[in-house]
Design brief:
5-stranded antiparallel beta sheet, alpha+beta
Length: 123
């Protein structure tokens, strides 16, 4: 039996800043090439042989139900990778973020999931 991999945090590359904090959205690797061309701006993307992770601002899961099989990782903590995934895309500039709404919509399209938006509950 193997022990589960220790949690690891994806770090922002040197020279970049994350004024809004960092979370990550992970998808199985075969979705990565389907999602990338659908995004108007791509921030830092990390990958290994099984998953791709996009850096998004903290709390990008607020009022969003990310489509399965995507997983939201608060704090950009990777729980199931045997090692730290490698950086495969670094944007120009100093901000590491992929805008969460276009990423959400691209993932919905790639997974065939209709977008769902939560509405405020009326009193």
């Amino acid at each position: 039996m193997h022990a589960p991999a220790a949690p690891r945090r994806l770090s922002v590359p040197e020279g970049m800043t994350a004024p809004m904090g960092c979370d990550a959205v992970a998808v199985p690797a075969h979705f990565g090439p389907l999602v990338m061309p659908r995004l108007p701006r791509v921030g830092c993307v990390y990958a290994n042989e099984t998953h791709w992770w996009w850096i998004v601002p903290s709390d990008s899961d607020y009022a969003l139900e990310w489509p399965a099989p995507a997983r939201y990782a608060a704090g950009a903590v990777v729980l199931d990778a045997p090692g730290l995934p490698g950086l495969i895309h670094r944007p120009d500039g100093t901000l590491p973020y992929t805008p969460p709404i276009p990423l959400y919509l691209a993932l919905c399209r790639a997974t065939g999931t209709p977008p769902t938006w939560s509405r405020p509950v009326s009193a």
